[in-house]
Write a structure and sequence with these properties.
single chain, 139 residues, mainly alpha, Helix Hairpins, 2 helices, rod-shaped
Length: 139
């Protein structure tokens, strides 16, 4: 009765929670990288200007560069949105895995409490027997 019967399940749930936490961490790092890349692209776009007085070829090259940066910013923003979506899914998965693990942990805590109560009860029985013997011996 002292052995928690769901110990294997608890270990499995803990493993799944750990795996989900690792996946969530990776997704959060992907979000950070995507956010940094989008910010860098936005800063580069904000820093690029069209020349005021330049020949047509220079002006077209500058316009093409801005257009390219603008397209890149759209792609980076899409990647950031996608990375955030993946992170949200993994956060939800981790949350469910944590709840599943916690449910079994609570069962284990209740089991340990029952074992402690049984041990204390058994100890009390022994103490009562010893006290009873002493009384009988004193008579």
């Amino acid at each position: 009765m002292n052995v928690f019967g769901l110990g294997g399940l608890l270990r499995l749930r803990a493993l799944r929670e750990d795996e989900a936490a690792v996946a969530l961490g990776a997704a959060e790092r992907d979000v950070a990288r995507a956010r940094d890349r989008a910010r860098t692209t936005a800063e580069r776009l904000a820093g690029s200007t069209l020349p005021g007085s330049a020949d047509g070829a220079t002006f077209l090259a500058a316009a093409a560069s801005r257009l390219s940066l603008s397209s890149l910013l759209v792609e980076d923003t899409d990647r950031l949105r996608e990375a955030r979506g993946v992170a949200a899914e993994r956060r939800e998965h981790w949350s469910h895995a944590r709840q599943d693990e916690r449910a079994v942990e609570l069962l284990e805590e209740h089991h340990e409490e029952r074992v402690r109560v049984e041990e204390l009860r058994a100890e009390q029985v022994v103490l009562d027997e010893v006290a009873g013997r002493r009384r009988e011996e004193e008579r």
